Amino acid sequence: MFRTALRNVLAHKARLLMTVLAVTLGVAFVSGTLVFTDTLKKSLSGQSAKSYEGVAVSVTSYGQGRNEEGQKEGEPGLGQQTLDRIKALPGVDTVSGSVSGFAGVGDENGKLIGSGWSNKGGNFTPVKDGKDPRYTFTQGAGPARADEVALDRATADTGRYKVGDKVRVATNGPVKEYTLAGVFTTEDGAVQAGGSLVLFETKVAQELYLKPGYFQELSVAAKNGTSPEKLLADIKPLLDSRTTKAQTGTALAAEQAKQIEKGLSDLSTMLLVFAGISLFVGIFLIYNTFTMLVTQRTKELALLRAVGANRGQVMRSVLTEALVVGFLSAAVGLLGGIGLALGIRSVIGSLGAKLPGGAPVIAPGTVVAAFVIGVVVTTVAALLPAWRTGRIAPVAAMGSAHLPASSKSLLLRNILGSVISLGGIGLVFLGVSKGGDTGRMIMGGGAFFMLIGMIVLLPLLSRPVIGAVRPLLQKVFGVPGKLAAQNAVRNPRRTAVTAASLAIGLTLVTTLSVLGITVGKVVDRMSTEKLKADYRVSMSSDAGSLDKSVAETLAKAPGIKAVSPQSAGYFLVDGDFRAASGVNPAAIGRLLNIEVLSGSLDSLGKGDVAVAEKTATKQKYTVGSALKLTYDDGREASVKVGAIYKDMEGLLSPYIIDDKILSEHSEEMYIPEVYVNVDGGASKAAQQKVVDALGKNPAIKVATQQDMRNEMGGMINTMLNIMYGLLGMALVISVLGVVNTLAMSVFERTQEIGMLRAIGLDRSRVKNMIRLEAVVISLFGAALGVAIGIFLAWAVGSTLAKSMPGYELILPWDRIGIFLLLAAVVGVLAAMWPARSAARLNMLTAIKTE
């Protein structure tokens, strides 16, 4: 029986090719993900360990904390005295302190070099022979004066800077010019990620990023013969355990390796989810293939039963075929996965990100996963067809090979499908009523059962749905159209399984599209309809704070009509921490469209506060209510509520106060953005005036309202395109399923096609019949997927509506139309080979075929 199974695999190579390809794609996706993440994890961990070579103990400061009254306490960092005490310990060789923060370098056109979020600045700290072991200088030396800097080699090469050149460097304040003292190489993660690194003289870096005389981190090297553990034990008593953390360099490298692994796990999980979707879709193709093969070989299998093979032997022979196919698919898929991992690396590199080098890591677990997935998925999908082979009676060797499914089996299937579908729909509505994360989790389970129920019910749905379009097909395409519709529902189970793979893919694509576009429109309205300012000024990294001098500089610049910072701060209100926005009372009403419900924003200029509607309702505030505030510096004040305004989540905090008052009580202000209006309104020339007023600072971005729209739309479109790309694998497998179904359908109907040719159906109309059959099946699956996708998008959107004011479901009919058109194109393309095969059949030979 084993030899028979192997001969059957070899005899049906063409028919099993699509199955092998489908499993190969899924296995390649899984193994490629594992190889890529394992390689990246090893490279980053090795890089992290290398950066801590020579560091026996690392001491990190958490900065100042807050006591129960909300007042800051403790030192802002590790002071020089702490450094000197550690340096005096007998086992210490050297101690170097470091500080870091954002620093941006402009190229010759003033454009920021590197990725904004990974552009860093730090201090050059020579510890021995005038060298800092973290950096290897290829040109010049480290900065020794306040007006000098050093650059990493990649940044220097990009900006075409040489030692002695003037370099324009920006932090969060005005741009400054420094002399380039040296160029270095480093293992620093920011540089390896495609960013830049600027080294300042230590005192300059401390003034920029912390406080004179303080460091954020100390790196301690041990003398020969002193263990890191002994040194750590000696250092800990010298530190305040509430605000500092000390650990060995080895432990720190291991901790960072764990963080790297945790960070990569999210990427790995996302990719594996899409790989799972592809494999799930592939199961339908495998199931369909083996079902059709078993049906076509009914006489052969019955003959085996007649000559003595028992049910178990016949069933095992089919499972053996599945095992061989699965093993072959897994082997090819593993090799494809290695290539896919290298491809992912190249794509990320082409986008500007730098990934550390290293050979691909093929872990034993990856190999095992590839073969287990390939073999198990194929075998599981073939189980039901294999079980059916055991039920073939020997007498079937003398009967027809193509017996329709009994009405009883379809009745049971329809009842089961209805129960599962209704249960899934019920869970979705329950999730809608619950809302929040809990509701969305319940909804996810409901969506899963809905899809399963839909798959079970598809044979029932196929007849009326396809039957409804039969008159149209007959009217437009004549006899080929009528025959195509009849063929599509001739075997409802096969049609259902073929359409199911497309339906699953289109369900996910439609859900993501509707949600993405709807959320994009909501965020767009929230950020721009409430924004009256001509420009928003922010850091290029979109994560840093502007210096307070930015607003001051713009307020003095000619042609500027109104300026207001949007400072983010905190204060205690009757003992509870509350977020506050500091604004310019004289200008904010002209820059933001704030809907005042009671009171007036003019009261902000008198020292009052404005409170958002939801907060005012919850706290029972009205205009004139007295609030007891405790500011960041510990000082207290009694202020009145001067206005109550409609919430502006994403733009303003629940409390608004005069920026001058907030800054008086804060040592460091966090200013994410400054809003600006110019004389004559927004224009290219006006935008350039704002840029020029800020000294053409490469670290600062001046965005128009359209820029903000494009930025938000670009982010959402990028996310959707990534999702489309990942789901594309499932759709490719769906296409293979259509090809396989049609190819085997043509094989089964060889005699019938010969008869149609004999009575006058020419080759072109035979091709049209096969093509239309493919289009009908594809559109049936696509339309069902789109409908379910819209329903799920509505359900998920309902749980988001409460947290997103103005949420309103938007159906992107243009994209939905494209999805359906693509489904029709998929049908036409999938039918090319089967249609050509059907048209080339010799009619006399076909008529004689049994």
Walk me through this protein's architecture.
Keywords: Cell membrane, Membrane, Transmembrane, Transmembrane helix. It is a single chain. The protein has 850 residues and is an alpha+beta fold. Among the domains are: 1-52 and 265-403, no CATH class; 100-208; 541-697, no CATH class. The protein is 57% helix and 17% strand. Strands 6, 7, 8, 9, 10, 11, 12 and 13 form an eight-stranded mixed β-sheet that branches. It has a six-stranded mixed beta barrel with strand order 18-19-24-21-23-22. A hairpin with a 5-residue loop joins strand 2 (65-66) and strand 3 (72-73). Helix 21 (705-748) runs parallel beside helix 25 (832-839). The longest helix has 48 residues, at 249-296. It is globular, with a radius of gyration of 34 Å.
Layout of helices and strands, plus pairs?
Blueprint: H1 2-11, H2 13-51, E1 57-61, E2 65-66, E3 72-73, E4 78-79, H3 80-87, E5 92-98, E6 100-102, E7 104-105, E8 120-124, E9 135-140, E10 148-152, H4 153-159, E11 166-170, E12 176-186, H5 189-192, E13 197-201, H6 202-209, E14 214-215, E15 217-222, H7 228-235, E16 244-248, H8 249-296, H9 298-306, H10 311-350, H11 364-390, H12 407-434, H13 436-477, H14 479-488, H15 492-529, E17 535-539, H16 548-556, E18 560-573, E19 576-583, H17 588-591, E20 596-599, E21 609-612, H18 613-619, E22 626-630, E23 636-645, E24 655-658, H19 659-664, E25 670-678, H20 684-693, E26 700-704, H21 705-748, H22 750-758, H23 763-800, H24 813-830, H25 832-839, H26 843-848
Parallel strand pairs: 8-13, 10-12, 19-24, 21-23
Antiparallel strand pairs: 1-15, 1-16, 2-3, 4-14, 5-15, 6-8, 7-11, 9-12, 10-13, 11-12, 17-25, 17-26, 18-19, 18-22, 18-25, 20-23, 21-24, 22-23
